Amino acid sequence: MALSREQIAMRVAQELKDGYYVNLGIGIPTLVANYVPQGMEVMLQSENGLLGMGQFPTEEELDADMINAGKQTVTAITGASIFDSAESFAMIRGGHVDLTVLGAFEVDINGNIASYMIPGKLIKGMGGAMDLVAGADNIIVTMTHASKHGESKLLPKCNLPLTGKGCIKKVLTDLAFLEIKDGKFHLLERAPGVSVAEIVKLTAGELVVPEQVPEMQF
């Protein structure tokens, strides 16, 4: 079965390391805040100016003034700091973020990403994604493997306008965890119950499949 949004966030959380500064993009990435391994200290950054983002609030914790970049209410952990967006983007552009997690419409075999617009539809703007993909070395993209029409989003070449070139190294979809290197997708793990054949069928870009592909563990 394909992973749920929460399971994707849980698998991303396994890539966190103690002491990391992590930027979480809008959408599925924000859910990672709920699955930071117990006992691990990471500082989650929201590009609107919060470092030290915690889990989503309960009714008792809710503060309408405390929001993330997607305008969702969040909490702040002990030691958190709040600053303006200029300082936030200086942190991003200066390469001070250890891991960036963001969504995408398309990713291709050369590590290109298209994530901010679909021609003919309402465009809110590129937001901070352009800065994040340009300023970070360690990026995980979270996305569905295929569109609702069954068309692959992992392509030989992105069709949509690019957010960044040659910047993506890992992709976690609802079907698989993949690495991009040498102009190919490399299959690392598959979602529980999802066959390698299904992943191959829905991956348009060249895919390298090892003899054994382990299922993700949660």
From TrEMBL:
The keyword Transferase is assigned to this record: yes
Keyword Cell cycle carried by entry: no
Top-rank lineage group of the source organism: Bacteria
Gene3D superfamilies for the chain: Glutaconate Coenzyme A-transferase
InterPro entries: 3-oxoacid_CoA-transf_B (IPR012791), CoA_trans_fam_I (IPR004165), CoA_transf_AS (IPR004164), NagB/RpiA_transferase-like (IPR037171)
Any GO MF annotation of the entry: CoA-transferase activity
One Pfam short name: CoA_trans
Keywords linked to the UniProt accession: Transferase
NCBIfam families linked to this entry: pcaJ_scoB_fam
Family: Belongs to the 3-oxoacid CoA-transferase subunit B family.
Protein name from the UniProt record: CoA transferase subunit B
